[in-house]
Design a protein that fits this description.
The chain is an alpha+beta fold and 309 residues long. It is built from 5 helices and 18 strands. It has one domain. Strands 1, 2, 5, 6, 11, 12, 13, 14, 15, 16, 17 and 18 form a 12-stranded mixed β-sheet that branches. The termini are far apart.
Length: 309
């Protein structure tokens, strides 16, 4: 309560008293309306733009190709030679075992797109972080071995001479060694061609053939989920035996011996996919920031991870 003192000097006084013209109820109706609007908005689940669009491989940095191919290469472990297998030379006859041979397929089966191989697939998983306890999985990109490149190799075993292989690795695998083509000894012409175009785990994916694995689909609206890059890891599912193979982004033999059993997955499992939500393109980079996958020499390479015994 305020106190006022007035001095009486015999003159007429004019006293103006100010009274508040608002009461406690004023404004409450507005607050109630705001609350109602908020409840209604939550109940009806307002429209969010979940429209997705197709992202393609970004133009080369030098501007020489606006729709470049993208290259992948997968190296499987050679359990006989204790190394990571690369593709054999077509000039070697008969060729040594390689790649899908160590997954249980003969060259003849690989060339014929046998059902088990046709049902197998490589899987790239997209995460928002490399830290496994904190990462969130968003999507996968699959591509079949039958989308891979092919190499003309000896594939047919004519004499069925199991155990008599020139390269004993075939016998160790429990497979007959493919024979070289039968030729006419007088003029060198081929009488029976044992070679076939054999699938190899290298992939040249392009925009023209709408290759699976070249495109991926993601949200157009960057305000809904603001992600500027993903981290991808790779697996191979073998439909013949149901085994899933994991891959590293570096040659495992280069890992320090102390890391073979407890390596840092944040450094050895992933590549980074940088996306542009303005022109809907992507680039693949290694974890040092260097762009990869733009040529066979800079292919996105993965090596099978073998858990040390």
């Amino acid at each position: 309560m305020n106190k006022y003192t007035f001095k009486l000097d015999g003159k007429d006084l004019n006293l103006s008293l100010g009274f508040g013209t608002t009461i406690d109820e004023v404004g409450r109706e507005d607050l109630i309306k705001t609350y109602e609007d908020d409840v209604v908005r939550k109940v009806i689940n307002p429209t969010k733009d979940y429209e997705i669009t197709r992202y393609r491989h970004a133009p080369l940095d030098d501007g020489s190709d606006n729709s470049p191919e993208i290259y992948y290469e997968f190296m499987f472990y050679d359990s006989i030679q204790s190394t990571w297998n690369t593709n054999p030379s077509a000039s070697v006859s008969p060729p040594p075992p390689f790649a899908y041979n160590f997954q249980g397929y003969t060259n003849e089966e690989i060339a014929a797109n046998t059902s088990d191989l046709n049902k197998s697939f490589f899987k790239l998983d997209f995460y928002d972080k490399v830290d496994k306890p904190k990462q969130k999985f968003y999507m996968s990109s699959l591509f079949s071995p039958i989308r891979g490149n092919r190499l003309n190799l000896d594939s047919i075993d004519l004499d069925c001479d199991y155990g008599g292989a020139a390269n004993a690795d075939w016998t160790t695998l429990g497979m007959n060694e493919p024979d070289s083509p039968i030729t006419n000894m007088s003029n060198g012409s081929i009488i029976y061609d044992t070679t076939r175009d054999v699938l190899i785990p290298t992939f040249t994916l392009d925009m023209d053939n709408k290759s699976s694995g070249y495109f991926f689909y993601w949200l157009k609206n960057k305000e809904l989920i603001n992600i500027k890059h993903f981290f991808i890891s790779a697996k191979f599912f073998n439909a013949r035996d149901g085994v899933i193979t994991r891959f590293l982004n570096q040659l495992p033999s280069t890992l320090p011996a102390t890391k073979m059993n407890s390596f840092d997955p944040t450094a050895y499992l992933y590549y980074r996919v940088q996306i542009n939500q303005t022109n809907y393109t992507y680039k693949v980079l290694d974890l040092t920031g260097i762009r990869v996958g733009t040529s066979p020499a800079t292919a996105i390479k993965y090596w099978e991870y073998i858990n040390p015994s």
